[in-house]
Design goal:
By secondary structure, the chain is of the alpha+beta class. Helices cover about 35% and strands about 20% of the residues.
Length: about 325
Amino acid sequence: MDKSNQAAITVYAPASMGNVGVGFDLLGAALAPIDGSLLGDRVTISNIDTGVEFEQVGAWAHKLPTNLTENIVYQCAVFFLEKLQRTDGVKLVLEKNLPVGSGLGSSASSVVAALYALNEHFKQPFDQQALLLLMGEFEGQISGSIHYDNVAPCYLGGMQLMLNTAKKVCAPIPSFKQWYWVVAYPGISLSTAKMRALLPAQYDKAVAIEFGRYLSAFVHASYQQDADMAIEVLKDVLAEPYRAAAIPGYLDAREALQQQGMLTTGISGSGPTLFSVTDSLEKAQQAKAWLEQHYVTEQGGFAHVCQLDEQGTRLV
């Protein structure tokens, strides 16, 4: 197929919260700052005669491997050309806008944007489920194990519940449109693998039952649109008790946000980004200002007032 006149396309993949507190490895949500700014990575693809050309730019490109062949986006392109047995080539430019090791689905954003762009460029050889499985596989190479709680919402948008059944990876659940999710990244990086290592190998039966009750109640409340119940059970009994002290300033911030009237606060993914929920825009703005002053400690840190990104990954 002649692609000599095919125009370059750019794909945007939003940041995401894994776990969403209550749903360890089983719940994820995509984020959209309400000021319209894009919080996520972008990948631009164009055709070349042969092989793979790759370039990394953007605010956080300096944190990526300097050997470009080690970048997962480059590896996605090599895989695609081999899988489709193409003799022509592609050039990919990754605009790295999400900090690495932030708890905002940084690796998922890069992988999802790259594979979505490649799939569009080559006229969608993979259907949605097949592409989602591929995204999980590639993202797992970075994070150390395959979990879809960042990849699925990043790709599909909204709040996603992981099903991991034979026919379906995930399904969307209703979200609370009146909620504001304030997210704050302090500017430090935490390794997902190291944060996972803080968790116990086994849990007490009572904790397992509590986890099941909170997650099922949260899903039920989402379908009933019972915001009070959803907030009451939006608790993390599996990860936060073991990770909170390892995130500088988190416990103090959680306490301060509660005093300001925020409804609940939790760790986004494995941290250090935190999220805090409110149904008041005024309180959300106050929380953002407090976090910028007290929780954001390093250059490159930020806070955003967000709602859920219902669109997911898209052409821009």
